[in-house]
Amino acid sequence: MSGTMTIKFAPDMPAATVEVVSPDLEIVQRVMLDPGRLASVEVPSEASFLRVHLPSGQVVTLEDPGNMTREVSLQTIRGRLQPPLQEELPEQCSPSDIRRYYRGRSRAPTLTMSSATELLQLRTYGSVELKGSAGPIPGVLSSNGREAQWQLPYNPQQPPLVLKVLEQTGARLELRVPGNASRIWARADACRDQEAVNFSVRVATLASTADTIAGYLQRGDLYSAETMTPWIHEAKGLLFDKMEDPYAAAVGAYLLLRLKQFERMHDWAQNLANRVPFLPDGCIIWAWQLIHQQPSNAGEIRKYLLMAASRGLPVYSEGLRLLTDGLRLMGSDGQTARDNLINSAGIILWSSPLTASLFAEPGTAPLTPASLHDIAFASEA
Amino acid sequence: MSLIWPATEAEVVTNASRLHAFVIAVADYPHLNGGSGPPALEPLGLTQVTTPRFTGLAIADWLLTRYQNPLCPLGSVEMLLSPNQLVPSPNGPVPATSATMANIETAFSLWKRRCGTDAGNIAWFYFCGHGVSKDAQYLLPENYGDPGVFQWRNSIDFDGLRVGMRSCAAQTQLFFVDACRETPFALLTQLNVQGNPLTSASFADSVSCSAAYYATTPGRQAYGPDNEVTYFGRALLSCLNGVAAIKKGPKWVVDTYSLGNALGQTMAQLARRHRQPLSCNPDPSGMGRINEVQGPRVIAAVSCTSEIADTVADILISQGATTLHSPPGQPKPIVEEVEAGDWTIQVSFPGNQFASAAVVRTFMPPVFEGVEVP
Q: Are residues A293 and A206 in the same domain?
């Protein structure tokens, strides 16, 4: 029997995309939900069910035939998920174990930052430090010396931070971290099934919905990402008018750019480019909006692409991809800027949502054991 | 000859929307370690690979026999294969040309010209072989490392190729990079890494859908068992055959968005089964319809919630007469491609270590994962 299904997210849920699915497996509708939000969907059958695309990439199916009023909570979905690892990770573990561990770790209580230090030694695997515009930011070690953590005050108006991991092999990982980050975790773990060390980083910001969107984009889950566009429009006053959080604004603009919803971008990207000089991403987004909407405006496109390149590496990998592509389209006069950018970028880890590069000094020994890198936004489900 | 189908260039349909494919598979690198030619001055630690010859043939076979898109039927298959060998086609076996840089340049031009004949065309590019990643993804043809020429002369700048394809009229462009995105240490200190993008574009060029799917993240090997199709190739074919399908009206369709999500999830399950750091980096931009399938399929990945329980669990998954069985001691999770729909999962413990359970669950594309006992 058809009817209206009402779905609500409990306060403990992160923002996520929910698919409402009919018994013949057709997706009736996709809706964005966040804590406390309700959605009503006309369904063809009371046997319709839900699929929740969680920020971590896990998808959970919730079947409850006949129940047309659904409240989704972390408590109810936990039973359907591989449980997060709450205990300490074994000395050797798999990349999937580490991901499960992070899901538990993200719910960990607020840190006590006593005895914080600037350069943190991750066992014998390497060392790590976080740098802001005013210098190194102290963090603390945990997980028997395998994990470094930082807790940061809310300051989305600050320039990007840089996380540097000096690996025992001599290679150096540099990661751009958005200035709106609230928690950062960096780990080094010996892999169980390979002779390799897994270096992993998780970043949480106070704009958790933006983190969710960035995760969807990273995994290529554009149907779920597309469903999140209402958040951009609801938050436009804070994000694009007051520029309260330019990093979250950039994520929203990247999403609209990816979905080619240029008319919904208005002149937001131009504001982001002109009013937030420490963020190359705004210039890149505005240049690409022009490439799509006004390709004949080559002078303006060039100006913003070169301005972006002069501001340094973008925070988001999406931006770096678009910047290098844009400089290619410029032809010979973009080549110099691209060469400079490439030389400053090292080997780029394109799987990371945040711009991440590997460097090594000439004459350094080969990478043995090999390193794996796993960089993502933190999510608790 | 690099045109596998149709038999001649004159038979290629150019006045209607068609999918034009270009498949490059390189399993013979004479200048890399273990090769038969003069060794490269900088082999980057790379050795011979066997998987591309099987993967390239599997992709060509899928295009020729399984691809189904009434709005854009198959138009042509261009293929380069090293070592060169016969490729089965509807016109009988066709000898494929080897995948040297010169042959790639020639075949690429022919392919791009065909793709450019109609805006409704789908351009399909598949590369299987060695690749290295620095600022961009570089793909290595058969004669990479020829010591007689500059190290990077025989290499493809894939990122440049993808951007350059904006100058092609085909408005749906699909790129599959089934290559190791290795970052050899020697590459860390090289400043003049460059490749041939084969084409270029300007701001005035545009494409409505450009989707690239990469086999692995940088720094990881595109693992595949010797003499078999690569893991990425297997995952892709599963997805195209229904694991990435979503229902649109009466039809089950694979599109650029659904493929991105499904490929990543499928690779994650293959990683669990084969205990390898497999992953996929999907980069779809724009919506494009790829394939229609008869019905949806699912990667079922079933295990208990703890490794201790997995070791002693007897798992039986059934739908009608179809059953999958994993007795105690066999590796978990069970990872198999199955039909979508309702399945019964029975988990029992012959040693009574945990309570047994039986549940019915709806398996829906792309992946069904886990069972909540114990």
A: yes
What is the CATH architecture assignment of B3-295? 3-Layer(aba) Sandwich (3.40)
On whether the CB atoms of residues B284 and A222 are closer than 8 A, the answer is: yes
Residue B294 at interface with chain A, using a CB cutoff of 8 Å: no
Are A36 and A174 in the same domain?
A: no
Following CA atoms B202, B207, B208, B214 in sequence, which dihedral angle do they give, to the nearest 10 degrees?
A: -110
B357: nearest Cα among B316, B318, B320, B306: B316
Residues A33 and A143 in one domain: no
Please report, in angstroms and rounded to a whole number, the separation of the first and last CA atoms in chain A: 33
Domain span at residue A56?
A: 3-78
- Strands B314-319 and B341-348, how do they pair? antiparallel
Q: Is this structure's pTM higher than 0.80?
A: yes
Last residue of a domain, which of A78, A103, A138? Answer: A78
Contact status of A299 with chain B (Cβ, < 8 Å)? no
Domain B299-369 classified CATH 2.60.40?
Answer: yes
ipTM higher than 0.90?
yes
Residues A197, A281, single domain; the answer is yes
A361, A273: one domain: yes
- Identify whether residues A15 and A144 lie together within a single domain: no
Q: Is A135 on the interface with B (CB under 8 A)?
A: no
- How many domains, chain A? 2
| Among B residues 216-275, those touching chain A with beta carbons less than 8 Å apart | 217-220, 246-247, 257-258, 260-261, 263-265, 268, 271-272, 275
The Cβ-side half-sphere exposure at B112, using a 13 Å CA radius, reads 18
- CB B199: neighbour CB atoms within 10 A? 17
Pinpoint the residues of chain B covered by CATH 2.60.40: 299-369
pLDDT tens for chain B, residues 1 to 374 = 699 999 999 999 999 999 999 999 999 999 999 999 999 998 888 889 899 999 999 999 999 999 999 999 999 999 999 999 999 999 999 999 999 999 999 999 999 999 999 999 999 999 999 998 888 899 999 999 999 999 999 999 999 999 999 999 999 999 999 987 666 777 777 777 889 999 999 999 999 999 999 987 544 455 788 889 999 999 999 999 999 999 999 999 999 999 999 999 999 898 888 877 788 889 999 999 999 999 999 999 998 888 888 899 999 999 999 999 999 999 888 999 999 999 999 999 999 999 999 999 999 999 998 777 76
Question: Distance between CA A7 and CA B23 in Å, rounded?
Answer: 46
